[in-house]
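To close the chapter, one final illustration. This time we ask the reader to focus less on the individual chains and more on the assembly as a whole: which components sit near each other, and how the overall shape emerges from the parts.
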Amino acid sequence: MSEQRSTTEANRLRNGDETPLLNIDDLQVHFNTEEGTVEALDGVSLTIGRDEVLGVIGESGCGKSVTALSTMGLLQSPPAEIVGGSITYDGTELLDLSDEELNEIRGDEITMIYQDPMSSLNPVLTIGHQVKEPLLAHRDVSEDEAHERAVEMLESVGLADAERLMTEYPDALSGGMRQRVVIAMALITEPKLLIADEPTTALDVTIQAQIMDLLTDLREEFEMSVLFISHDLAVISEIADRIGVMYAGNVVEQCEMRTLFESPLHPYTRKLAESIPSLEGDTDRLPTIEGTVPELINPPSGCRFAGRCPQYIGEVCDTVEPPLETPSGIEGDQKVACHLYDEQRGEDPPWPVGEEAGGTDGVARTEGVDGS
Amino acid sequence: MSSDTHHDMTDDARTDGGTATATDGSEAVSDTGPATGRIARSKVVFMRVMQNRFAVFGLMVVLLLLFTAIFADFIAPYEPAEQNYNALKEPPSLDHPFGTDQYGRDVFSRVVYGSRYAVFLGVVIVGIEMLLGVTLGLVAGYYGGLIESTIMRVVDIALSMPALVLALAIAGMLGGGLFPLIVAVSLVGWRGFARLVRGDVKSVMEEEYIDSAEAAGLSDFRTISRYVLPNAASSIIVYATLTIPTVILWSAGLSFLGMGVQPPKPEWGAILAAGRGEIDDAWWIATFPGLAIMVTVIGFNGLGDGLRDALDPRQVR
Amino acid sequence: MLKYIARRLLVTIPVLIGVTIAISLIVYLAPGNPARIALGMNAQPEAVRELERQMGLNQPPWIRYLEWLWGVVNLELGESVRTGRPVTAMIARRLPPTLELAVGSMFLTLIIALPLGVISAVRQYSWVDTTSMLFAIFWLSMPSFWLALILLLLFSVQWNMFPISGRGTPVLTMTWLSSLILPAVATGTRRAGLLTRMTRSSMLEILNEDYIRTARGKGIGERAVIYTHAMKNAMIPIITLIGLQIPFIFSGSVIIETVFSWPGMGRLLVNSVLQRDYPIVQGLVLVYAVIVVLSNLFVDIMYGYFDPRIEYE
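The assembled structure is written out below.
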């Protein structure tokens, strides 16, 4: 956690502006399938500032990839359909852009790396071709310049013998090496925002650590923002400044990375934090969350976590969707979507809120998380 | 080996690159459960087929064909061999919807009776091909090794000779006629089945439950019939449905060339051959049997396509 | 790459030998005595026996096979039973027209099917897609001989645009071309229907791959995505499909040559089968097989060119 950036407040003060780099506001996406309409995203709101890493965590199917793909305009429609909301990048509304206009931005200022390195690269084009491509498409450079830059990039991502690799095909490389190529491809245009969709999930643990180190280093070097998606809290905590927790198509909590471990507010987040095995303490059964994710075809009205929530209040949880907002008594930028914090309820949440919360109450200790 | 890397596409009227999934067996849906699972699945398959308009059209055509073949005696107004010297080469009219040919025979009736040949040849020939091909494919896939290579080598050899060329040679050498036709076309068409089944069998063999079956001591035959065959069944059925139009086309082709069903029998290809010489002043003699063939082929293809889509929705349409 | 080609070549030899065995087997098993056929039904038994001895028919089958095989290696395929003329020369004369027809129809097929298939896939579900799919089904369901007759009827008889039969000479002139058009269309468009569908399927599968999504995400534009990224991948299965079509082009040409009186191998085949002139039949089937095998080899090589993954096999 030593590389964590300062809080968003400090960021803004430094840059002198409050406009987030990427602002996803109330994004709603449906998938029209044979079996029915899947309401994949139910009003997702996330913000990423400049030179900041936002982690997004959630179980499979919670909509994190869909959010990322929507930003890049890579959803297949049909069957996908963006039914509402907005995605603003540096003041520009991405959802209003035509394909040509979007192509100016993606691949250049916003780039993406994907989960499965084995299938993300085109098997019949050379590595050199694929790495040079974004540069040649978006910048006015000669073939030679692009070639040189590509070799540099391949070396920066830790690939030896980069010159020779330029003429090889992806089949010659292992998974870890391919992922490095994908990263090189994504960073060659020095983007302002990198979207990383579970980049280490398909790799084995040792390679995973290497890639994470690489990403952290590069992020510093390029001073870019990152939207880092994963289902692995430990991995995210290594790189993220802030984090958004997603569940069943909603963002249920958004806060600083530290805060997630120190004083999580949403019952789901608390459970998540609890379930990380720690190296100290008693080694009893890992706490789990009972129940399963709800069906997204006819999703329940109200809070989608209601069915599994240990702090279930009553009818309000089943009928009214809690909005994502900052509860009173909290300083800083923590937002949560839960009726527990509804002022009008008149009751206090069952645990201390705000700065008083100090790593007690069954919340995972921060030391256990990244092993440092 | 070319037979391994290339996909199976041996027949004309086979419509789609979709067989890419057929031969590697990924299409074989795992269904080793009890019969009840099978029945439920058949219903789902049926529903899916019904939803596909083209498949429904195909089904209707097939049913119409069967109906015509069975009830030809009632549908046809004239005997197929009945000659009427007063009505030679008459254009289509109310009396003769498809006109008459150079011997005064009613073309419509001949086409109707011709449906019998289509059905007969389709069923018999595909049946033989299936028997030959499936058996050989099963043996090749199950036993593997030398047996498999030998059989596949034979398939390769058979595939090197263009189908019609081979069929023509066989039929001709045997003297032409209905029986040689059946032999010739069957000998040419079984290779597709063999390839297909072998591919399916091989992928099933790789599944673990085969090992447990062997460990449990099941005999070869039982293993094959209980586990391997049902999985391949759906692709076999689809392939068979799609082979029927090819068989009909080839039979008509051979008859057209004079090697198959001989005139004056009213097989569609033979009628076309007779109409060929009169094309300039009696176009209807050749046109209508050809239309009949075409509609039949479209019908079976539609049905086969629909079946294939219904049995494996994972495929890209 | 060379290793790949060498491997392929090695495989074809046993296949060809197998073909010779298969053909000889068929001919051997055929009923009827070739000598008697040559001399006619009323021939004297002694004359028949004498001819049999001359033709080597009284030797055991495997010797006859080997003798024939030896002839094949020396490019001597025997003599016609009817006319006594050398088979090799007869076939050699018929080979170019058949090849012309094959190339012509393949050309037509590719020109129609590939673009149509790609466009249908790219604009899936559009009217272009549905129309071309319907068209494809329509075309591939037609019996080739029927299509040939209809074409003849319309273009030659009714509108007199093209000659009814025969092959115009010399080659590569307008007369030749206009005589080639109808037969090529008859053979080629039918195959085009099939290939269009297969191209479309292949393309659709490719377009759903992850690396296409990666390519789009690079903002290089849809054109580049399709032509640079997708097409090259799609070519791989398509090449294979085209290769598999080749035997059928020759099958189809047998019928088309008959309908249009095109002086190729197909017509020779039909006539010699009808006349039970077995040396010609044997020779022809062999030549067809050789052509198919060679074109498969060619296709395999093309496949190797398009798919760099072979190097890693």
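The radius of gyration of chain A is 21 Å. Chain A has 14 helices and eleven strands. With these observations in hand, you are ready for the problems at the end of the chapter.
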